[in-house]
Amino acid sequence: SSLKAFRSSFLDFIADPFYVSELESVRYIPDGLLVLEDGKIKEIGTYDSLQHKYKEISITAYPGMLIMPGFIDTHVHFPQLEMIASYGEQLLTWLNKYTFPTEGKFKDKTYAQKVAAIFLDELLKNGTTTALVFATVHPESVDAFFEEANRRHLRTIAGKVMMDRNAPDFLTDTAETSYQETKALIQKWHKKDRLLYAVTPRFAITSTNEQLQIAGRLLQEFPDVYLHTHISENVDEVAFVKQLFPESQGYLDVYDRAGLVGDRSVFAHGVHLTDAEFHRLSQANAAIAFCPTSNLFLGSGLFRIETAKSKDYPVKVGLGTDVGGGTSVSLLQTANEAYKIAQLRQQKLSPFQTLFLATLGGAKALNLEAKIGNFNPGKEADFVVLDPRATPLMAFRNSDATPTSLEELAERIFTLVIMGDDRAIHATYIMGGLVMGNG
Length: 439
Ligand code: GUN
Ligand code: FE
What we know:
By secondary structure, this protein is of the alpha/beta class. The protein has helices at 22-25, 47-50, 91-104, 109-125, 139-151, 175-189, 209-221, 235-244, 251-257, 275-284, 292-297, 305-308, 331-344, 351-358, 360-365, 392-397, 406-419, and strands at residues 3-13, 26-37, 40-46, 59-69, 71-77, 128-134, 155-159, 161-162, 196-201, 226-231, 265-269, 287-290, 316-319, 383-386, 425-430, 433-437. It has two domains: 3-70 and 375-437, Urease, subunit C, domain 1 (Roll); 71-365, Alpha-Beta Barrel (TIM Barrel), CATH 3.20.20.140. It has 17 helices and 16 strands. α5 (139-151) runs parallel beside α6 (175-189), α6 (175-189) packs parallel to α7 and α14 crosses α17 (406-419). It is globular. Fe (iii) ion (FE) binds at residues 75, 77, 230, 268, 322, 325.
């Protein structure tokens, strides 16, 4: 077996800071040692307490840095990377004008492979080590994505988009072909190495009820795959869904009637969900991907995170970049905008809460808490080395002293969230191996 160790400051979460105090949820080790064995966490503790046990192994030191678990993006579209920052529209017109023509290109597997490689390298550069990803309607786009993800040994979840109406002909499947193609892709990719599959109807507008029922059938036939879709993002979208499914009680009920609301379901956005819908998500132990940069950029609205994170009806929440509706691949920048959306609603997200959402909160939302999300022994060693003094302004803002209290640490990490982006990612490690940045 191969042992490796890292000496630096370490921050991770051992409980949810929305529900318990920061003293109970934050694990901070100012001078720590992280020990890995065969790409997994063996132990973590203070340098002083552990160094005598590991005298013979070489230690990689990152003085002045802060090491955290890799960031988790709970909703993103890899084919939309190239159309980030498309001007002037809200959701439904944005889809028709920019998104659908772009996604049409991904029938070409070579093209899809090229974009997938650029996309994944961009994620790693930004410290994102796991993502839940939309491909396009084309099975080739899923093959291309999973091949590139597997080449990088990433724990990623993805799926072929199912869409059989209200979209151009070049981008639609049928209920029957979406069933056959999805089934074949699940059999090919689900649980291959670190890869996992998500059944991915785009949203209620682009699927017939027949296709949604078929998505539900796939979930029954393959009980451990995910369900990934969009919900209640935009006011016009919600109204259109009401018109398309007059027999349903509401948007979530459309999915519920197809058997799509369960503990492995991830719904992107949820900006316009009702209280009753939040309660139903809580009861089903389903998750929401909060996509702040996208909700601002597309003018969709302000997500009610305090309702999702209520103690009476807790809903699992992760952060999603939602690129290309979102404007940044960086989860630091996504957390920054999440904080500002809370501000606009007279709510407060603490520095620790924002970074919880980007790490352990995301792992919980994706039901991957047993594998990733913090530095507990046995977990997979995907982590990021953050540089709190990455830019001249950040170095001016942050002293070179290591924070010694949670209060000092909160101030330090808040500057990372508000000012940080890919420049603050000093290095990214996958399964204990350096994949991006400085060793
Ligand atoms: N709803 C349905 N499709 C999409 C998409 O591609 N992006 C966003 N943001 N919302 C959607
Ligand atoms: Fe999206």
